[in-house]
Write a structure and sequence with these properties.
The protein has one domain (81-432): Purple Acid Phosphatase, chain A, domain 2. 27% of the residues lie in helices and 23% in strands. The protein contains eleven helices and 16 strands. The strands form two sheets. Strands 1, 2, 3, 4, 5, 12, 13, 14 and 15 form a nine-stranded mixed beta sheet that branches. Strand 3, helix 5 and strand 4 form a beta-alpha-beta unit. Helix 8 runs parallel beside helix 9. It starts with 7 loop residues before the first helix and ends with a strand.
């Protein structure tokens, strides 16, 4: 007989509890089988280990691995490239200059040593070669100039990377002089633009320079032209480039098609010994800027320093810096030309930025003055240093003369772009790309 206290529902509930306990025990046994047995707490599988069978039913051994939930850090963007491009006034070795060189053979190294740190300090230094190399090896002065190869060798040793060779004296020695000048520059590892040794060379008149910076290659193109040949006739029609806004714009585009990031134009234009740029200079500079193809214009010919300014236009409408004249780098000219500025020159350089996307900006232009001590062996001296009282031994300039020259140049030049800081290169020397 059943107990009066026995109820069927209790029996069923107890049976269900036994079933639940049995299932729990079974699951515990499976867990211990997978993760380990005993009293030790089970550890989760290592992240690199495959999941246990049955834990992730949707994942099969042949299924591709899922990407990590946190993406890996993106590669850092390429940094902007910063570099400097400089030029100075005319290389104009009159015969008194040549006579002051060792043996009269044209080694001007000692004369230009005072400006060497500034020249070597820019990333790309482009001089203005006013006169040709004499093909017969005989130096000559005004009015039909011819100089000697040691002049170019000294320029290279001072840090110059190339020269603008289009000038009103470029054809003084005819085509033979054009060829001798280019050959001498090339033999010394320097570039040249403005003159051409052949019609083939004239078809690609730009000189390219490649600079390795920040793991990238920045290419600078140099163009050069002049206003005239002093009445001489270039019978070839292609040996010396004459000023042309349309030509400059077209060749700048061609240079960019050839890989140039930056285009620099050197042009001889203006009137000699004038304090301020004349109308022809400003008109030409504004027309060049309006093409939107030239990054910077370095001008020459007046033989005296003239101011600089940022003109509207330029690539992308970002403006174009123009230096109207850097005066003379080395010459025998003096106040006899009507102004003391004839024996003063300025070193001019620009700061250039090339972004990771290839956009170019000329961020600033700077200048620093130098002067030639004619009676002291035609040495080129830092005029700012002289004005501070730093006068090298052997200098023949009086304190009054130094003050006079300093005051004259600082009254004429743009004071906002003056710099007393020697530039420093941002990388290795440029590679000169052969023109032919």
């Amino acid at each position: 007989m059943r107990s009066p206290y026995h109820r069927p529902g209790r029996v069923l509930a107890a049976g269900r509890r036994r079933t639940v306990l049995l299932l729990a025990a079974t699951l515990l046994a499976l867990t211990l089988t997978v993760y380990g047995s005993g009293a030790q707490q089970a550890e989760p599988p290592a992240a690199s280990s495959p999941p246990p069978a049955g834990v992730l039913a949707a994942t099969s051994p042949s299924a591709p691995a899922e990407p990590a939930s946190d993406p890996s850090p993106s590669q850092a963007p390429s940094p902007d490239v910063h570099l400097t491009i400089g030029y100075a006034g005319d290389v104009l070795p009159h015969m008194p200059v040549m006579d002051d060189t060792p043996g009269g053979q044209g080694d001007i190294s000692g004369m230009i040593a005072g400006e060497q740190p500034w020249v070597a300090g820019v990333d790309l230094a482009l001089c203005g070669m006013e006169v040709p190399i004499a093909p017969d090896g005989v130096a000559s002065g005004y009015p039909m100039f011819g100089t000697l190869p040691p002049v170019v060798q000294a320029l290279k040793g001072s840090g110059w990377d190339g020269c603008a060779t289009a000038s009103n004296h470029a054809y003084d020695q005819g085509l033979a002089g054009v060829v001798a000048t280019a050959d001498t520059l090339v033999a010394n590892g320097m570039g040249f633009a403005g003159t051409n040794r052949s019609q083939v060379e004239a078809a690609t008149p730009y000189q390219l320079y490649r600079l390795e910076r920040e793991g990238r290659t920045v290419t600078v193109a140099q163009l050069s032209s002049t206003y005239s040949l002093n009445g001489l006739v270039d019978e070839t029609g292609w040996a010396v480039q004459i000023n042309s806004v349309e030509w400059a714009a077209a060749q700048a585009r061609a240079a960019r098609d050839a890989g140039a990031d930056v285009v620099v134009l050197h042009s001889q234009i203006g009137e000699e010994y004038t304090r301020d740029p004349v109308q022809s200079q400003t008109d030409y500079a504004n027309a060049i800027a309006a093409t939107g193809e030239i990054d910077v214009l370095f001008s020459a010919h007046p033989h005296v320093p003239q101011t600089n300014e940022l003109l509207p236009g330029g690539p992308g409408g970002r403006g174009m810096w123009v230096s109207y004249s850097a005066g003379n780098y080395l010459s025998n000219q003096s106040e006899a030309q009507g102004t003391v500025m004839a024996c003063i020159g300025v070193f001019v350089w620009v700061d250039v930025t090339v972004t990771a996307q290839g956009q170019v900006s000329v961020d600033a232009l700077h200048w620093h003055p130098f002067t030639v001590d004619l009676d002291g062996g035609h040495r080129v001296l830092d005029l700012a240093a002289l004005a501070r009282g730093e006068v090298p031994a052997g200098t023949t300039l009086s304190a009054e003369e130094i003050a006079y020259r300093w005051q004259t140049v600082t009254e004429i030049m743009n004071p906002q772009t003056y710099s007393d800081t020697v530039p420093a290169p941002t990388g290795s020397e440029p590679t000169v790309v052969p023109r032919s």
